[in-house]
């Protein structure tokens, strides 16, 4: 049932993204209502899909790569609405939504694994997963802001206004989005890692600290800590900061997805490793 | 509908002709009152600016307003119009509506996208309205023209990109800083150009200003005019880091601001960006400053390049604007046409049905022995005849809307069927 809902949501997302294109090309100050309606409907259906799944397994529906991708792309689309309504950046959809679309498409394609693991329960775990994902969403926004900043900055530096100059927001708006999402993301990621440590120390035996995913997430956390503090102090601002944000996002995606397939204890593949 | 527009503009007539035909503001009200006093003219509008003079009239059906407008112009300007005839353009009905919409949307202006024309037209409208010259069709067309102008400005970027150097500087500043509110300007070299740029920036929201000049008195003068602070030229570098936007136009033969100095300024500002506008020749600011992260340097050539690119943008936006105008003209014409024919159609139906009813009544005596079904059949028969007769004229009325001879058609049908005016 929920995969049907997800598929329809994906279709609406695709429509929404396509509808964004003419508004961006024609330099409209806002998106057409039809675009927001399509994306909004997609979001509602996506929420319904997640809701159905949650009801079926009585937990937060983040239990394997597929459901994790679905949950992340849902949060990212939700974040898109918040940011668009706050800043009215017409081109925002073009930067945020394609990745969201691809992830939700992958999620819709992957086969559903019948959920059998009793381990995904408990308050610590719920907090851990929710915090991590909120942190990821915030950092996705940081990444998007960094990309927009870099495009706009390049055109301003080149003194030759071209396509992006007219369609991207000011550097100030990009920077505001950038720093605010950093300020939101780092606490959530930190909380997520902490609660994860607490939960793992209770549930797992052995040197779980050396699990690849945990190591990778610490590296990611460090990168974002550097970003956060250098931006706050103003030591790094502008281009240099933006480049590091892109690197941080790659680290984040590696942590999120790449390592899941390798991780022993932490992966979404319960048969590897010794989960109780 | 019987709309007629005659006019000259910067494209069809040189300034000598335009100024001869101009209506000064003080006499505009009496002129438009005179226009509508003329027999046959129901409404009038006069638009007179430095780039155009236009007379619009809505006349009674069947009247040819052209000689009336000619006479009006000749009377008012107390001259023979024949030397000016070749400069006039004439627009009728739909074309007149289209022209009014285009002018209001600034598509007919010398600088497409300029905002003044709408205000000028609105003033002309207010004068005509007060003089009682706008109370029907033309009033509706004019108000719709303003709505179309607003739509064009809202849905295209026709008026937004800066097409002059000082405005380009403001636009760039906004692209960097988002809003100019709370931003500080530093003017180095108190000349005409930098004064103009500063004025634009201040009126766009910048809040504080420092002025520095080799001659301190001149700096004080300019600072006072802008409610800012004067800084001695020797202390310049101590204060520049307080500014977000630096406008420089000194006559110095060497660089006033160099790269290492800007590095220090940025560090002091915690890397908050700085925008340097260098309008001096020879340049005041070392162009390699632009290589620094968070510093942007634009010289006079760069600003011209931005203006150029913006002009091309405006032209592209003008294409979209023309599309919008075209759609709106068609919408308006359809609305006017269907509205015009409705009273005629209603009157026609009433007239023929009255004939039908009175004939049936007249022959009631001979038809008194009819059964109810037969009476119904008779009713249906007579109704059918009336409807079939009406079908032709009604179709013609509805489909002919917007065509130039339509007004005559409506008159003709009314006359033929004996429907009063």
What does this entry look like structurally?
- The complex is a heterodimer of chains A (276) and B (421).
- Chain A is mainly alpha-helical.
- Chain A has two domains: 1-116; 120-276, no CATH class.
- Chain A is 75% helix and 0% strand.
- Chain A is built from nine helices and no strands.
- Chain A has helices at residues 2-25, 33-57, 65-87, 92-109, 123-158, 163-167, 171-203, 212-233, 239-258.
- In chain A, helix 3 (65-87) runs antiparallel to helix 4 and helix 5 packs antiparallel against helix 9.
- The radius of gyration of chain A is 19 Å and the shape is flat.
- Residues 268-276 of chain A have low confidence and may be disordered.
- With 421 residues, chain B is α/β, with parallel strands linked by helices.
- Chain B has three domains: 3-155, 2-Layer Sandwich (Beta Polymerase, domain 2); 165-308, 3-Layer(aba) Sandwich (Rossmann fold); 343-416, no CATH class.
- Helix content of chain B is 54%, strand content 13%.
- Chain B has 14 helices and ten strands.
- Chain B has helices at residues 15-21, 28-37, 65-77, 93-104, 116-130, 137-155, 165-177, 192-203, 216-225, 236-239, 259-268, 300-362, 372-399, 406-416, and strands at residues 3-9, 41-48, 52-59, 89-92, 184-188, 208-213, 229-232, 245-248, 274-278, 295-299.
- Chain B has a six-stranded parallel sheet. A four-stranded antiparallel sheet of chain B has the order 2-3-1-4, with helices on both faces.
- In chain B, strand 6, helix 9 and strand 7 form a beta-alpha-beta unit.
- Chains A and B meet through helix 5 and helix 7 of A and helix 7 and helix 12 of B.
């Amino acid at each position: 049932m929920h995969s049907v809902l997800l598929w329809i949501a994906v279709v609406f997302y695709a429509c929404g993204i396509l509808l964004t294109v003419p508004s961006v090309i024609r330099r409209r100050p806002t998106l057409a209502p039809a675009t927001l309606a399509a994306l909004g409907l997609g979001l509602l259906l996506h929420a319904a899909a997640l809701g159905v799944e949650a009801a079926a397994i009585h937990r937060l529906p983040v239990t394997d790569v597929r459901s994790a991708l679905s949950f992340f792309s849902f949060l990212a689309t939700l974040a898109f609405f918040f940011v668009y309504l706050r800043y009215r950046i017409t081109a925002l959809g073009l930067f945020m939504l394609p990745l969201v679309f691809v992830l939700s498409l992958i999620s819709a394609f992957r086969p559903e694994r019948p959920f059998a693991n009793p381990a995904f329960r408990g308050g610590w775990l719920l907090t851990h997963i929710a915090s991590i994902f909120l942190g990821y969403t915030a950092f996705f926004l940081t990444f998007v802001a960094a990309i927009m900043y870099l495009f706009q900055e390049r055109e301003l530096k080149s003194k030759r206004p071209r396509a992006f100059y007219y369609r991207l927001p000011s550097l100030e708006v990009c920077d505001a989005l950038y720093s605010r999402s950093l300020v939101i993301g780092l606490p959530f990621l930190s909380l997520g890692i902490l609660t994860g440590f607490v939960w793992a120390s209770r549930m797992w035996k052995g040197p779980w600290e050396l699990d690849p995913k945990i190591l990778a997430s610490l590296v990611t956390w460090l990168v974002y800590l550097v970003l956060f503090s250098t931006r706050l102090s103003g030591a790094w601002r502008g281009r240099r900061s933006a480049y590091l944000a892109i690197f941080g996002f790659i680290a984040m995606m590696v942590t999120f997805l790449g390592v899941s397939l390798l991780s022993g204890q932490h992966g979404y593949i319960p048969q590897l490793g010794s989960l109780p | 509908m019987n709309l007629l527009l005659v006019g000259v503009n910067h494209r069809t007539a040189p300034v000598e002709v335009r100024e001869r035909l101009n209506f000064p503001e003080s006499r505009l009200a009496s002129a438009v009152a005179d226009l509508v006093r003329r027999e046959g003219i129901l409404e009038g509008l006069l638009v007179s600016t430095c780039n155009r003079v236009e007379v619009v009239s809505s006349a009674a059906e069947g009247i040819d307003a052209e000689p009336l407008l000619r006479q009006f112009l000749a009377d008012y300007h107390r001259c023979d119009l024949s030397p000016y005839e070749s400069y006039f353009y004439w627009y009728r009905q739909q074309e007149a509506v289209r022209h009014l919409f285009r002018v209001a949307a600034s598509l007919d202006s010398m600088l497409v996208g300029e905002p003044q024309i709408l205000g000028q037209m609105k003033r002309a409208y207010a004068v005509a309205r007060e003089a009682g010259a706008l109370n029907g069709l033309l009033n509706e067309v004019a108000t719709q023209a303003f709505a179309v102008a607003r739509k064009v400005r809202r849905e295209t970027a026709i008026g937004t990109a800066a097409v002059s150097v000082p405005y380009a500087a403001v636009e760039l500043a906004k692209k960097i800083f988002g809003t100019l509110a709370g931003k500080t300007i530093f003017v180095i070299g108190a000349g005409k150009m930098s004064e103009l740029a500063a004025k634009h920036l201040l009126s766009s929201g910048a809040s504080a200003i420092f002025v520095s000049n080799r001659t301190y008195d001149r700096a004080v003068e300019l600072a006072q005019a802008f409610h800012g602070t004067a800084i001695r030229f020797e202390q310049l570098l101590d204060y520049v880091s307080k500014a977000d936007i630096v406008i420089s136009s000194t006559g110095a033969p060497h660089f006033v601001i160099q790269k290492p100095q800007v590095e220090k300024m940025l560090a002091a500002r915690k890397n908050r960006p700085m925008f340097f506008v260098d309008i001096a020749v020879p340049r005041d600011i070392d162009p390699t400053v632009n290589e620094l992260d968070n510093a942007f340097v634009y010289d006079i050539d760069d600003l011209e390049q931005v203006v150029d690119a913006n002009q091309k943008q405006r032209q592209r936006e003008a294409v979209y604007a023309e599309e919008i105008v075209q759609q709106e003209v068609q919408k308006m014409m359809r609305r006017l046409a269907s509205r015009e024919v409705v009273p005629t159609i209603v009157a026609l139906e009433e007239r023929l049905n009255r004939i039908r009813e009175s004939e049936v009544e007249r022959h009631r005596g001979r038809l008194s022995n009819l059964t109810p079904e037969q009476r119904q059949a008779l009713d249906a028969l007579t109704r059918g005849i009336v409807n079939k007769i009406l079908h032709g004229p009604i179709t013609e009325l509805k489909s002919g809307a917007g065509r130039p001879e339509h007004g005559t058609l409506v008159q003709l049908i009314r006359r033929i069927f004996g429907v009063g005016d």
